[in-house]
Amino acid sequence: MSEFYLLVKIYILAFIPVFVAVNAVSVLPIFVGLTADLKPKKRNEVLSRSILTATLIAMAFIFVGKIVFNVLGVTVADFKIAGGILLFIMSVGYLLPGGIQRGKYIEKEDVGVFPLGTPLITGPAVLTTCLVLRDEYGLMPTLVSLIANVLVVWFIFANAGRIIKFLGKSGSRAFSKVGDILLAAFAVMMVRNGAIEIIRDFLR
């Protein structure tokens, strides 16, 4: 019984950090904003691609992340800054008058892959957390916690259509703009955190 309790405790402890790192609730406004003008079928396609992308990237990173970073000489801080800059450019394009037209952009560029799949669902925080968890608890608890969290994200995003319906056309557009601002803020946060990490490493 004690061994079973310990095993359950390990899986719970592995689940919580990934859940916090993913933070699906805060990403939901961005998902709604990016898919508000889409038909339910297209929105479900974007959702499926984002979940698949997030899962594959995270799983691949669990197995080969450290090797790839060491070979390329890239750090997690570098990853944060690069992803943040790309996200910021995209969010500004949505916010400014005459910028990116959301519906056309989504048809041409698969936002299910970027920015939803990565770095919003599976970003530097999730990738780093997964690496730490593998060292701390082992491969299987890390994989199970990742898959469980991806299912949580899928459930939350799958109900985005109800949220859009509840808000109505005007409310969805307003919520969309809030999501764009959050996306820009998220991008700035990624760049800031990456820069702080680089400065700290330089000063050591």
Automatic annotation (TrEMBL):
Q: Where does the sequence pass through the membrane?
A: 12-34, 46-69, 81-100, 112-134, 140-160, 181-199
Which Pfam families would you find in this protein's record?
Answer: MarC (PF01914)
Is-annotated flag, keyword Transmembrane helix? yes
* InterPro entries assigned: Multi_antbiot-R_MarC
Keywords annotated in UniProt: Cell membrane, Membrane, Transmembrane, Transmembrane helix
Protein location: Cell membrane
| UniProt superkingdom | Bacteria
Membrane-topology descriptor: Multi-pass membrane protein
Q: Please verify whether the record's keywords include Cell membrane.
A: yes
Return the GO cellular component terms, semicolon-separated. Answer: plasma membrane
Q: What is its main location?
A: membrane
Q: Which family does it belong to?
A: Belongs to the UPF0056 (MarC) family.
Would you tell me the protein name for this molecule? UPF0056 membrane protein
- The species is Candidatus Taenaricola geysiri
